[in-house]
Amino acid sequence: MVPWAQSRVVDSRWPARSSYAGAPEKTEQAWRGDYFTAGDMGYLDDDGYLFLTDRKIDMIISGGANVYPAEVESVLFMHPAVADVAVFGVPDPEWGERVHAVIEACSPVTGSDLMEFCRGRLAHYKCPTSAEITESLPRDPNGKVRKRLLRDKYWVGSEKVI
To answer: Where are the domains of the chain?
Structure first.
């Protein structure tokens, strides 16, 4: 038997309960009775359709305001020079966190150009205060951008760690 399979709880509805490897506290927090949540956030419209907007763990809290990276990323994706983008919070001594963007560009562009592009399309507090251009974003084997690898270097030595 595989070691991880021995620790899984099995009940009549699920072949195996989902869990986070090596993180029992995180696993416990993710279960709501019989339901498992990955922390997705969204809303129901007037017709009862569910729209997922982001993940709670990715939310940036800057000066007490909630900034959803997916919203900022969707604006940056509208710029013709942006092939892919990752937006996340970095430490800020005054605001707690500030919005930072890492852009995989498909044509020449500067971080300043992209920040200005956002200012005409987003509330000021949601706009990136810094941006960097990279040749490629780090990805997992499934192609998903690994924001944690981008974000971690900014939080080294910080009192608050996200």
So the answer is: 17-57, 59-155
Q: How many helices (H) and strands (E) would you count in the chain?
A: 5, 9
Condensed to tens digits (0 to 9), the pLDDT of residues 72-122 reads 999 999 999 999 999 999 999 999 999 999 999 999 999 999 999 999 999
Provide the 10 A C-beta neighbour count for residue 122.
Answer: 18
The DSSP bridge partners found for residue 89 are: 99
Class of domain 59-155: alpha beta
Structure tokens of 102?
């890492």
pTM of the entire structure?
0.73
Structure token digits, residue 162: 């996200």
**Angle at CA of residue 132, ends 149 and 147, nearest 5°:** 20
